Amino acid sequence: MASAREQMYLMAILLIFSPSKLTLSNAGAVTGQPIPPEWPHQFHAFMFMNESGILQKLDLWYDWPNGRNFNIIRNQLDHVVSYDLEWTNGTSFVYTLDPSDPTCKVVDFGVGILRPNWLDGATYLGQQHVDNFLCNVWAKVDFIVYYEEVLTRRPVRRDFSSGYTGHVMTFEVGAVLEDANWQAPVYCFDGNEKEKNIPILGSAVRGGSLGSLMREIPTGETM
Ligand SMILES: *[C@@H]1O[C@H](CO)[C@@H](O)[C@H](O)[C@H]1NC(C)=O
Ligand SMILES: *[C@@H]1O[C@H](CO)[C@@H](O)[C@H](O)[C@H]1NC(C)=O
User: Fold this and answer.
1) Quick check: 102 pLDDT over 80?
2) For residue 58, which of 42, 75, 41 has the smallest C-alpha distance?
3) Could you say which residues form the signal peptide (predicted)?
4) Could you identify the atom of ligand 2 that is nearest to the CA of residue 184?
5) Where are the domains of the chain?
6) What is the pLDDT of residues 137-171, one digit of tens each?
7) pLDDT for 28-42, tens place per residue?
8) Which residues' Cβ are closer than 6 Å to ligand 2?
9) CA nearest 174: which of 77, 63, 60?
10) 153-187 burial, b if ≥16 CB within 10 A, otherwise e?
């Protein structure tokens, strides 16, 4: 009978050469590198964002089981709140609720929201001190650098190659936004919404917001 050590060795070989998609994340364990995190299926994160000096606060509600993701964004000292509501069928509703100037833009991204395992296959870059936390650092396709606290495995920060940085201020695992809040306003459905422009979210519509940017990450390899 094989010894425990031999069995572990065999297991490692099987994991390394297994064609399964699990290989990517488990290979890390075999080589002793930390495994990229899988996102909790539902969470609320409050974040500070910095887009080349333009500061924003962002409420991020990730809700994988219900196939939806919400970015609620406010620029520094701006009273207008922008809503970027993403559905996993690829449709995003980008709108304001400001009574003086209600706007809505419907965007079809053609891809769903980020999968919880979207960091699978990310390149481990070692440990760094960022935002006063000692973090494990991963890069995903030269597009995003992801920082997770070594001690608690909480997300700390993410930097996009565009210069957009996101600092996680709170992270509540399991928090879910009530259904009523996921209803886009009626003027998103009147057929005139497409030409309207929303200055605060201009960059988000072009792919500047956290969620929209993330939608552009090639996720095919993790599906
Ligand atoms: C925002 O980012 C810019 C670089 O793009 C940096 O110079 C600036 O210090 C940052 N601001 C804050 C408040 O972190
Ligand atoms: C995607 O889902 C949302 C929410 O259910 C819906 O409002 C929207 O019309 C759907 N988009 C498409 C293209 O079916």
Assistant:
1) yes
2) 75
3) 1-23
4) 7
5) 4-17+43-118+168-221
6) 999 988 899 999 999 999 999 999 989 999 999 99
7) 455 689 999 999 999
8) 87, 89, 91
9) 63
10) ebbbbbbbeeebbbbbeebeeeeebeeeebebbee
